[in-house]
Amino acid sequence: MKKTNYGILIALICGTIFAACSRQEDNSSESYEQMSAPTFELHMEGTETAESADGSTYKCSMKELNPYLCEFESDSPYFYADILVTGFSAESSYGNDFNMLVSLSGDAEVTWHYFDSREQMEDALDERNENTANGEADEETNGEIQLVYYSFPLPEDFHALNCYRTMEERLGTEEWEIRAVSTDNGNIYYFSQETNGQGSGYLYSSDSNLTVQNLVIKNGYAYGLALKQTSFSAASKELDLLFYRFRGNFGRDTFYGWGLNEERLYWIDHEERFIEEESSARRFVEVRGIDTSWEQSREQLMRYFGMMKDAVYEVPLSDDGPVLELHFSLVQEISVPDYRIFLLNGFCMDEEYNMTVTDKETGQILQEGIVKLSIELPDTIHFVDLNGDGLKDMRIDSPVHISGARAKTDKWTPPKYMLWNPTAGQFEKKTEKEVQNSLLANRNGLTEEEQAEKTLRERRDFFVLLKQLPSWANSDKYIELTVEVEEYVVQPGDTLWSISENFFGSGLYWTMLQREKNTSKDPDLLLPGEVIHIPERPLYIRRDPYSRGGLSSPGRYQIEYPDGFGHYELTNDVSYYGLAKENKLYYTILANEMEENSLTSDWEAFQAEVIRCSEEICPARVSNLQFEKYKVKDGCDMYGYSFEYDTGDYSIELTCFIRLGKTNMVEVIGVRKKEPNTVLLNTTRYVAASFIDYGEPSNISIGGDEPNVGADDWAYPHLHNLFRSLQNRFGK
Predict the structure, then answer these.
(1) Contact of 558 with 552, CB cutoff 8 Å
(2) How do residues 147-176 score in pLDDT, each as one tens digit?
(3) How far apart are CA 10 and CA 122, in angstroms?
(4) pTM (2 d.p.)
(5) Distance (Å, whole) CA 17 – CA 125
(6) Alpha-carbon distance 225 to 214, whole Å?
(7) Which residues contact 73 (CB under 8 A, 6 or more apart)?
(8) What backbone phi and psi angles, to 5 degrees, belong to 160?
(9) What is the torsional sign of CA 707, 710, 712, 718?
(10) Residue 194: which pLDDT band, with cuts at 50, 70 and 90?
């Protein structure tokens, strides 16, 4: 523990309060940095001074001490007391309500010193300090505790922030820091010098650290208790219980509270703050907001925060462009003391602000509208060139307010964007995707419409089939498929090398290709129309490294959910609503009533049935019908088909993959408006390939009141008939 003798201690504690509280701040025209500097000037208005008088000495037990100190009355509000404690001990226990009970033992001797004015009290403290410096300090007595209790009224211009900063500068150390805590809904707060522990800004319990002094502020008065000298260990919990009990005399809530940082200390006793920044010229007016969610809570700890009322920015669009003035003002017009904004669930929210954009040179108003800004952090607007056109745009951050801390920019809420449109001469709201598209368009010298089409064509196809596994790849991160023997009809210009490249990813496998017996033996002589037999070959799909966990049932099945697609459990029919906005994947996992891999031997019949339905149910509407069949390593076979459907207004792409396991089956259907890439096909295939049948039945059977759509229209009632589904929706 830091040893501090009597005169120095009292001079520091009380002098600190006097120095920090004696100057009225005028913040109407100062910048934040200028306003925030701690002030130590003294301008005391005392009454006519008289000789200080010492009161009589009072003796009591430690059990009676705290009530006696708090109930003590004097003709003068300025006083302090020397307290000598002998035979001190302390114990704690917990009652039925889990509140800590403190029992103090020992005898106390209290000697009062009281004064007629604050100035007189300070002179006496200065004299004590001088005597201590000359070697007249009291000597420490082994086995005893010496304390100082003091009280005085606070001046009208008292500011908690200045008090905290002055105490921090004069008394705080790395081992014993100054804390500020609010209790009783902001009606009581106190400063303490304690061992280093919990950080400020979170729920704070006063029994978690060791204390050497406390200063309680309540109803315009300061009440302090400080440790002068002791023979106890600096880490003694008994001493800390003494201060714990002292705070208890001011109310039950003083045992815990809300940690106060400098921002919240400011709003305890200020109604407004003006901030001005020169670099990127901007001005803010903040007012004291009231957090009604805290105010109405059971604890009612701390309810005040700074809230932006008004902001002005001066923005040069470019080096040689016009200078704009943007003015934001809170739409909710109420008088300053009555700002009551509800922070939903303790998180900072956005409020509506009127935005006016003016050309500074001409004074012309270019734009008026409403935008949403954070109420608790002024500088959330940044003016930068977001789309690379040489003109500044607007990015609006949405900070998050957590556990009473000052709001900070966080990824919890995405920012908002407003791009400057030079043609319209206004800021226009854009999504993050639109901002990125505009940036790429300017880089590539395209219009935004042309860039959107280019991006659509080049959309990354994460689950594309790989013909070869990279040499450095970990096979566990890939799904391995096998394509059975198939036939290929030679086209003009084909070579065995090019055919091998097409099917195996490398021409080196050309010797594996099988030609019919009646063809030429010359490998360089291929005739158009010749049939080449392609042997079984492996293909690979990279597993999703950003897997969202998918759908799983322990012991039954598991299936992946890739990002970027809407996922829907398929019960009766496929929805074609909102196809322009997202790619959709539908899945159904049921008890398999078709037997394991039953379509393997029935594959040609299944293809014929799909072709028949496409022609009879959807005449002249289906095109580009394709079929796929694979063996999946360590899993059941996979069957798939895909096609395009003409609705009359636009084309729809659909793809369907089926897995029939020992006990469970899956059907995965992908649907979207037609796009110039294979993302839908490859993603749907991947989801089906990720299906694992663990062997225990899912206890869900096909049938019931809602059979699969089109069950009566083809020979596979356990599967959805997509052609009937489309015709029901778009048929005329």
Answers:
(1) yes
(2) 888 888 888 888 888 888 888 888 777 777
(3) 10
(4) 0.58
(5) 13
(6) 5
(7) none
(8) -65, -35
(9) negative
(10) confident
| Structure tokens, 133 | 């410096």
Measured between its terminal Cα atoms, the distance across the chain in Å is 89
Q: How far apart are CA 79 and CA 149, in angstroms?
A: 9
Which residues, 6 or more positions from 321, have their beta carbon under 8 angstroms from its beta carbon? 391
List strands edge to edge, sheet with 583-591. 537-542, 478-483, 622-632, 638-646, 651-660, 664-673, 583-591, 565-569
Look at residues 540, 429, 565 and name the one whose alpha carbon lies nearest to residue 479: 540
- The gap from C-alpha 130 to its chain's centroid, in whole angstroms, comes to 55
In eight-state DSSP terms, residue 139 is: P
Burial class (CB in 10 A: 0-12, 13-18, 19+), 504: buried
pLDDT in tens, 555-613: 888 899 887 788 888 877 898 887 876 778 999 998 998 999 999 999 989 999 999 99
Q: Identify the residue whose tokens are 């598991």.
A: 558
Dist. CA 25–CA 270, nearest whole Å: 10
Contact 159, 180 (CB under 8 A): no
**Using alpha carbons only, what angle is made at residue 182 by residues 176 and 183, rounded to the nearest 5 degrees?**
125
Distant-in-sequence, close-in-space partners of 123: CB < 8 Å, separation ≥ 6: 49
Rounded Cα distance, 205 and 188, in Å: 15
d(CA 226, CA 240): 11
Q: Tens digit of pLDDT for each residue in 493-550? A: 888 888 887 777 667 677 778 788 777 777 778 888 888 887 778 889 999 877 767 7
How many other C-beta atoms can be found within 10 angstroms of the C-beta atom of residue 170? 16
**What pLDDT, in 10s, does the model give residues 101-151?**
888 888 999 998 888 887 887 787 677 656 555 544 445 455 688 888 888
Q: What's the rounded Cα separation, in Å, for the pair 494 and 488?
A: 11
Q: Residue 66 class from Cβ within 10 Å (0-12 exposed, 13-18 middle, 19+ buried)?
A: buried
Length of the chain: 732
Place of tokens 């076979």: 637
Q: How many CB atoms lie within 10 A of CB 497?
A: 16
Token readout for 168 is 């921090």
Please give the C-alpha separations between residue 38 and each of 22, 31, 42, 165, 603, in angstroms, as whole numbers. 12, 14, 13, 6, 84
CA nearest 265: which of 156, 347, 181, 332?
181
Provide the CA 52 distance to its chain's centre, in angstroms.
59
Query: Measuring CA to CA, how many Å separate 618 from each of 293, 624, 651, 707, 722?
Result: 59, 14, 13, 21, 10
pLDDT tens per residue across span 49-65:
233 345 678 899 998 88
Cross-strand pairs, 350: 374
Neighbour tally for 412: CB within 10 Å: 12
* Phi/psi of residue 729, nearest 5 degrees: -85, -40
The rounded distance, in Å, linking the Cα atoms of 493 and 513 is 17
- Torsion angles phi and psi, residue 93, rounded to 5: -150, 175
Max CA distance (Å), the chain: 131
